[in-house]
Each structure stands twice: as structure tokens, then as C-alpha cells.
Amino acid sequence: MRRAWLTGTMALAALGLLAGCTPATYDLAAVSKDARGQPQVELTLCKGEAAVGAFVMLHADGPPESGWNTGIGGNHGRPGPFPLFSPPPDWEVNREGPQSLLPGYNYWVSYHAVDGTSVKYEVMSHFRAEDIEALGPDQVWAHGRAMSRKRYREYVKDEC
Q: What is the pLDDT of residue 19?
């Protein structure tokens, strides 16, 4: 009995150590529409964080698979909003499937906030084409709902 208790306690301690090493995950990306109604994304970082890096991805639950990724590595600075399916031209992007929002699909945008070679936190945000189509002027989709840009800035400040 004592051996089982000790083994269980050691296993829980090991899991706690592993969990302590995992970077936090936030929902900080904002998806919106530009003046022409085309979807765009803003990869937000907490104030003072250095760069978006490592692996940046837009993915839809397929089939057909739809989206793009930057692959492993790279430091992408602090990119401003850009068209959802057209990442900055200096990124080496691997594309897969249709490069447009498909109705009925779940999409995820994910990336890491990095400082040099260390990952500070991960960002993972979820949306659907219908969420973006329903946005009004000066609204973004973030944290699972539509909100004004002002509210979005407040939300990021609170999260960070």
C-alpha cells in the first residue's frame, strides 16, 4: 500500500513539473473584414513581447483541408493585420487546399510569442466563416465572440 501511494505521489509530482513547463495559451488573435469585406487577421502580442515566431498556422477542419503554415522556425516580428489567406510576403508559407473561408468549417489561427529562442506563450483562436461574415463595421471576432476594436484592445490588456 505504501509503495502504491509513493508511486502515485511521484507520478503526480512528475505531471505537475511537466505541466509547469508548458507555456500558457491565450486567445489573442482577431479576425475581421477589411473595407472590401475580405477577411483579415491580426496576430496580437502582449505589450512588450518581442515577436510572433516558431510556427504560425491557419487551419480548417477538412476535408478538404484548407489553410497555410509557416513551418518550424523563423521570427516574424510584430505583423500588423494582413489578409487571412495572404500572410506577409517574406514568410515562407506552405499552402494547403482552398485559400478562402468555407461555410460550415471550423478555423484555427495559432502562433507562439517568442523572445529569442524561448516560447513565452501560445495563441490559439477559433472562428467560423459565418462568424466573420456577420461582423459589422469596426468589429473583430476574438475570444469566441464579436466585439468592437476598443473592447478587443481592453480584452487583450486584461488577458496579458
A: 43
Alpha-helical (H) ranges within the chain are: 2-20, 129-133, 149-159
Give the best-scoring range by mean pLDDT among 1-15, 55-69, 144-158.
144-158
106-131: b (≥16 Cβ within 10 Å) or e = ebebbbbbbeeeeebbbbebbbbbeb
Write the CB contacts of 136 (distance below 8 Å, at least 6 apart in sequence).
Answer: 146
pLDDT of residue 155: 95
- For residue 58, CA distances in Å to 19, 126, 143, 148 come to 26, 10, 16, 23
Length of the chain: 160
Assigned C-alpha cell, 93: 508559407
- Work out the number of other CB atoms within 10 angstroms of the CB of residue 31: 23
Q: Are 67 and 107 in contact (CB under 8 A)?
A: yes
